[in-house]
Each structure stands twice: as structure tokens, then as C-alpha cells.
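Reopening this one. Same input as before:
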Amino acid sequence: MTHPPLDRSKLIIPALGGFYEKLSPYSWLMVRVIAGVLLIPHGYGKLFTPGAIDGTAGFMGSIGLVPGLFWAWVIALLEFAGGVMLVVGFLTRPIAAMVVGFMAVAAFYVHWGNGFLWTKGGYEYPLMWGVVALAILFRGGGAYSVDRRLGREF
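Same output, byte for byte:
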């Protein structure tokens, strides 16, 4: 996707125009990579910390997501492997769609009753990440992705 040239005359600080033009092609890459990088440690902890997958399974079961062990593995693998896949931009849209679903459940099923603010256990954070994943779903991997290199995307 190409963007129209930047009209420097409309910038408050026109001297920044070159900076914006130079780095703009990497902006989508930054969003996708950071989204993936921030998912990875959550999955890593669940997968590689002794007892963590069982603890996650217990939590899942306690909030009605059964079978808890199944959902714990799904989420752990989505966070870890899916995070890696987002970083490199491989199967970007299907992974993003799964993250959207995961964050929708987190926001509206798990955290909704706590109100908006994340600092009070609310839905703010999963809602924000769900919208980021939705944008990734709509846009795809972008120019710097394995999907683009393969020449095929969902």
C-alpha cells in the first residue's frame, strides 16, 4: 500500500517532513513486531514455568472456560508461537484473528465487570490489544513480512 506524498506545507514543523517520509514505511512493521514481541513472554511463562500451565488451566476453569487445560494450552501457544509468527509476519491475518477473539473474551467476559481502568482489573488493556490485533487483521503483514515474501496472504 502506498501513501500520497507528505505535504510539508501542512506540517507545524516542516523540517520534520524528511524524517517522517524516511521512517513512515517502517511504521506498520513496528506495530506488528511490537504486538508479537509483547505476546511472547506471556506464552513463554505459561509454557516453560513449572506449574504455570496448570495454574492457567485452573484459572480458566474457575471462570467457566472449560476444559481449562485445553484453553490454557491454546492461549499459551497463541501467545508464544503466535507472537513469534506476528513478529515475522507469517500467517499474519489468521493469527491476528485468533488474538482478536482471545482479547474479546478477555475484555468482555473476564474483565468487563471490573470497569474500564486496567489498573483496577478492567477491560482497557485487552480492548486496546484487541483493536491493535483487529488492525493487523485488516492490514495484513505489510511490506516487511514473510507473507509478502511468499506472495500469498489470507
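So the earlier flakiness isn't reproducible anymore. For the record, The mean pLDDT is 95.
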